[in-house]
């Protein structure tokens, strides 16, 4: 191994050349041990000029921009969790273009605008989503008291108060029952959509139940099935019947002929109706509303009505303790709407009670337990299955006729 090479020292500080250096015994078995790097001619001046580290220029104090003073943190009396959550609400409001434009044009703080909007029921400033968001902006009474005491001190400057504290100062502390007002307003805004959704479900259910009661052709099909069943079950314990459970309708399509390819009892039923009682095949049109009614749910309707009634009850309870604070306060409109919606909710409940009576009558007609709400869904499934079987049979007949023509 050759002697340690002597390397010329650069006059300037150089950029590093990043390599992995071989050490000691590693070199003895490599080609590097016989190389003579010190015998290499090298333009070190050019190398130095190309790869030296650039010298830092001294900053001209005249051109150097003065550093901006760091603003001291603003005063807050709110816990960190609430500070972050309500801070997000405030930021979302101020980042909204329409809201921001109003702030600029009126030169009012976000909390002041919110308070005035609540008093005047201004939906241009606060829509349903914003109201829902602001309802979550609450903090402890002790923190509100601390904000109030700080603001009352003439030595304190409001400009040094945190935006969240300032929001509470201009809303919750400036307007009695601020959150309760928001909740009552939200209840009024949400009522019509929720009540209409309940009524639509009720009407669907009502149509389905009434078409079951009034369908003449469905009764005719049941008569034909009773005749068929008594004939097939003659002399057995299941023969000589005058009625059967609706669940038995599923067996019509499942009962196959004793010769393969001859179809099912459903095929026989449809053929007999087609031959002797063609009008009976119109039962699907008579029961058309059943398909739509099956999309309605007793539990969903019941729950939806209870939720609406509960929201109105809570809103009325809160509203009873809210007093007007001046001529600009339009909360009386909320009270008037709550009174009207109480009546509308009662009307919805009365219609629902009528539908439940319809259900009880239909349940009796088909020997069903009126506490079970599955009959509409069961009938919808059976009508659909009957229609599919009819289409299947028609398709099969068409295919057979096509084969014969060939």
Question: Any overview of this molecule?
Answer:
The chain is mainly α and 406 residues long. The protein has helices at 25-28, 44-51, 80-95, 97-106, 110-120, 128-135, 141-152, 163-170, 178-214, 216-232, 250-254, 265-276, 283-286, 288-293, 298-319, 331-365, 375-405. Helix 3 crosses helix 8, helix 9 packs antiparallel against helix 15 and helix 9 packs parallel to helix 16. It is flat, with a radius of gyration of 42 Å. The model has no long low-confidence stretch (mean pLDDT 84).
Summarize the structure.
The chain has 17 helices and no strands. With 406 residues, the chain is mainly alpha-helical.
Write the layout of secondary structure elements.
Layout: H1 25-28, H2 44-51, H3 80-95, H4 97-106, H5 110-120, H6 128-135, H7 141-152, H8 163-170, H9 178-214, H10 216-232, H11 250-254, H12 265-276, H13 283-286, H14 288-293, H15 298-319, H16 331-365, H17 375-405
Question: Could you list some keywords that capture this structure?
Answer:
17 helices, single chain, 406 residues, mainly alpha
């Amino acid at each position: 191994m050759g002697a340690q090479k002597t390397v010329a020292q650069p006059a300037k500080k150089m950029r590093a050349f990043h390599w992995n250096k071989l050490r000691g015994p590693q070199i003895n078995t490599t080609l590097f041990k016989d190389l003579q790097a010190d015998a290499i001619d090298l333009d070190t001046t050019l190398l130095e000029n190309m790869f030296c580290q650039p010298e830092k220029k001294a900053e001209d104090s005249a051109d150097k921009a003065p550093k901006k003073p760091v603003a001291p943190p603003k005063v807050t009396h709110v816990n960190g969790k609430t500070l972050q959550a309500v801070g997000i609400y405030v930021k979302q409001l101020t980042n909204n273009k329409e809201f921001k434009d109003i702030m600029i044009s009126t030169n009012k703080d976000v909390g002041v605008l919110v308070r005035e909007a609540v008093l005047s029921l201004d939906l241009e400033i606060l829509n349903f989503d914003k109201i829902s968001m602001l309802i979550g902006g609450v903090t402890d009474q002790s923190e509100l008291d601390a904000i109030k005491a700080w603001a009352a001190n003439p030595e304190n400057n409001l400009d040094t108060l945190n935006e969240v504290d300032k929001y509470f100062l201009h809303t919750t502390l400036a307007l009695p029952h601020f959150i309760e007002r928001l909740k009552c307003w939200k209840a009024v805004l949400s009522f019509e959509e929720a009540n209409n959704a309940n009524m639509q479900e009720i009407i669907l259910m009502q149509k389905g139940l009434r078409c079951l009661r009034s369908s003449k052709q469905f009764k005719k099909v049941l008569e034909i099935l009773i005749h068929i069943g008594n004939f097939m079950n003659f002399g057995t314990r299941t023969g000589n019947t005058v009625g059967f459970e609706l669940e038995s309708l599923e067996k019509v399509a499942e009962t196959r002929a004793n010769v393969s390819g001859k179809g099912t009892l459903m095929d026989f039923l449809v053929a007999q109706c087609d031959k002797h009682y063609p009008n009976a095949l119109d039962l699907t049109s008579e029961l058309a509303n059943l398909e739509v009614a099956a999309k309605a749910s007793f539990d969903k309707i019941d729950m939806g009505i209870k939720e609406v009634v509960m929201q109105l009850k809570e809103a009325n309870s809160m509203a009873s303790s809210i007093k007007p604070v001046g001529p600009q306060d339009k909360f009386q409109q909320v009270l008037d709407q709550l009174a009207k919606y109480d009546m509308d909710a009662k009307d919805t409940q009365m219609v629902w009670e009528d539908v439940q009576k319809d259900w009880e009558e239909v349940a009796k007609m088909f020997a069903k337990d009126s506490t079970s709400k599955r009959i509409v869904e069961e009938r919808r499934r059976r009508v659909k299955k009957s229609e599919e079987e009819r289409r299947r049979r028609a398709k099969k007949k068409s295919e057979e006729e096509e084969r014969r023509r060939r």
